[in-house]
Design brief:
The protein is α+β, with helices and mostly antiparallel strands and 104 residues long. Helix content is 33%, strand content 12%. It has 4 helices and 4 strands; from the N terminus they run ααβαβαββ. Strands 1-2 form a two-stranded antiparallel ribbon. The protein has a two-stranded antiparallel ribbon with strand order 3-4. A hairpin with a 2-residue loop joins strand 3 and strand 4. The protein starts with 19 loop residues before the first helix and ends with a strand.
Amino acid sequence: GPENPNWRGGEAPYGPGWNASKRRQVRERDGYECSDCGTTQAEHKAEHDEKLHVHHLIKARAIDDPEERNAPENLITLCRVCHQRWERLSEAGIRPQIDGVTAD
């Protein structure tokens, strides 16, 4: 929303399949840790009063099919700081990579 530094106006077209259950499943798969820096969900919640973020590796707006857009293999757990950095890098055309996972 408007309070997010990555807000560009309008609604993000995440569509069907983007829900709390899906985000929980991705966080669980990733061990409730930021896949980039290793911040745990408990640490993140203590610092930011929110759960770890779930990020689309290939931007949601770039994928028409909601099932593909919100597929687990297109989602990764990141802390707020890493999520913001990954978004800035993506906007600059740079694709972060960690342990074989590449953002688009």
